[in-house]
Amino acid sequence: MRASPLSYWLASAPPFTGGAEGGVEGKVDVAIIGGGFTGLSAALALAKRGARVVLLEAGRVVGEASGRNGGQCNNGTAHDYGTLSAKFGKDVAKAWYRAHCDAVDTVERLAREEGIACDFNRCGRVKLAAKPQHYDKLVRAHDLLAAEVDENVRLVPPEQVRDEVGSDAFHGALIQTTSAQLHPARFGVGLAEAAARASARIYEQAEVTGLDRLPQGWRVTSSRGTVSADQVLVATGGAPAAAPFGFFRRRIISVGSFVIATEPLDNATIDRLLPGRRNYVTSKNIGNYFRLTPDNRLIFGGRARFAISDPRSDLKSGRILEETMGELFPALKGVGVDHVWGGMVDLTADRVPRAGEQDGLYYAMGYSGHGVQMATHMGQQMARVMSGEPDANPWAKLDWPSVPGHFGKPWFLPLVGLWYKWQDVIR
Ligand SMILES: Cc1cc2nc3c(=O)[nH]c(=O)nc-3n(C[C@H](O)[C@H](O)[C@H](O)COP(=O)(O)OP(=O)(O)OC[C@H]3O[C@@H](n4cnc5c(N)ncnc54)[C@H](O)[C@@H]3O)c2cc1C
Fold first, then answer.
1. Which pLDDT score is estimated for 101?
2. pTM for the whole thing?
3. Which atom of ligand 1 is nearest to the CA of 341?
């Protein structure tokens, strides 16, 4: 396979032009560590509130998960609503589901307010039943959602599923009609430019290597210099960059997810295969997600293997994804693949995000594959929390035990992968 290892999104986004020059120094109100959606959204909101903000990013802004994802900005929680309701109670599940809907609204609002050209589009999200018995589950999910929390859901029975997707592999579907898609890297670079316009100082290639408590606030040491700050927000996602953040590394499980982007497809093929041009996910545990780009490429992703993302691993996973794409859509066998990439998804053990304050450090992460909307939203919400509105944090009441035996490197991933594969066989 001859394809660029750069994410299609990063390859087709404008460069960020508002980066701060020179060394990191001085004293600020807030230092933010990490320049993905969480950090950039928080920087924008805090700077607009008048705070002096420095953001320190180890690589380039949106260079990790925020610029490498599937570009889906969906309603709904990572775990299905019924499971959450059974485990945490109906009111909590409702509040969390609504928080994800609010998060999609937040992305739309920011794109509009800041004039970010990122092709935001409420296309709807189609969950495709990969087995006949999965459709029964979708029917139950639909009924519960419609009765309790989301009237914008619709079922597609097995005999009509080909109206949505030109493939023999599926047995019905559930559509969340208000879900959206966008160009994530254009959105992220737009957020960064907006934050810089609002006077946030954004430093790229500034890896944070030290955090020391001062009598008041923190000293933050980075590869570009040192700054002292009254408050610090840790917004490091699932990125494997070395960081003095042991607490988070024992709780965040970073898992590789992988994506390919085909060459542009012709309109006739698209009308046959994906006429609604929506977001699509399959119902298996180790399933796939896909959508089209505005220039008619198919973005096709999935976990492919339970592994970390690095250039070799991405390529290996890309081959598996190309094969799966051909199985689901035989018409795409042999279509050119222009980009193959991967990234690290920030999972929590229960796939519920975490945010709050730990030993004086603020944090938000663990969006478990739903961070395009929730990371952006949590950046805004954490700006409010850090300005004295603790109720703005939808995840405030959750405890966050460490993952037993996890010290940063998720050695247990292959075992988890086998378990999920087995579940896909038997259920
Ligand atoms: C392949 C893939 C597909 C996905 N698809 C979707 C999808 O379709 N829809 C969806 O909702 N979500 C999806 N996600 C998840 C989503 O992209 C993330 O949850 C979200 O982008 C997290 O944003 P963030 O800002 O918290 O973290 P990130 O975007 O990971 O940003 C964290 C930043 O912190 C920086 N950093 C780390 N350590 C340090 C340090 N010591 N010093 C300075 N900087 C540091 C990193 O370099 C990084 O840029 C996907 C993720 C991946 C990887």
1. 97
2. 0.95
3. 1
